[in-house]
Amino acid sequence: MMKIWKNNQRIALIITAAGSSTRFGKNIKKEYLPIVENDLSKGTVLGRSLETFLETGYFSTIVITIPENQQREAEKALSYLPLGKSLLNNEIQSINFSFCTGGNTRQSSVFEGLKCVKELSGGNLPDAVLIHDGARPFVSKKIIDDVISSLEKSGAAVPGVPAVDTQKQVDENGKIVAHLERSTIYAVQTPQAFQFAPLLEAHKKAAADGRVYTDDTEIWGQYCGDVYISYGETTNKKITYKEDLITGSRQ
Q1: Does residue 65 contact residue 97 with C-beta atoms inside 8 Å?
Q2: Class of CATH domain 6-160+189-241
Q3: pLDDT tens readout for residues 19-54
Q4: Under a CB-based contact definition with an 8 Å cutoff, are residues 97 and 133 in contact?
Q5: What is the CA radius of gyration of the chain?
């Protein structure tokens, strides 16, 4: 059963999985690959990325952005875990679910996902949206709970962890040009959380202004306002290389 967020407000989820996974080699998409924990298969990267969100029961609409003509592969990746399989089989009646063809960049993929959420909502827009990278399968319920709590207070939030190493800014030749204050630097993660309608309008403006934005917090900062850091975890890592697929027990 879906949990009720404050004042019966609705939350959508967009999982981005439309990238090319170039570091994994030609024709290998990392979101569809299996995760192995303690020598046992624990679903796929995409399946695990979705499963924890489904376990929370918060979401009324879920959209997953994928490359064109890859719905069959995405469905297979979700089918290895119980809740993903139930979602595919339309057994979770409280959730509107769809795949959506993404764009050539993360920014354009999220924009397509937002438009798909709007279409699925049938004019009854969600109040908030969480945007999660499909290559982060180790997200925890604590991270999700905390980013939603921070969203209630600020309108936009992103999980992050304080920088551990000393940070330097360098130029195109590799020369250090600035010594950054480590105590003020965070490594941000996903899910990033926003009020839905303002983010959709901000993306429309960002699509027209000709700039390239690194993530949705930058778009929100440009057109809407401030974003605040919420609780993040070092275990909420992004799968980048093949060795990231083999891990010990999930914390």
Answers
A1: no
A2: alpha beta
A3: 765 555 556 789 999 987 755 567 899 999 999 999
A4: no
A5: 18
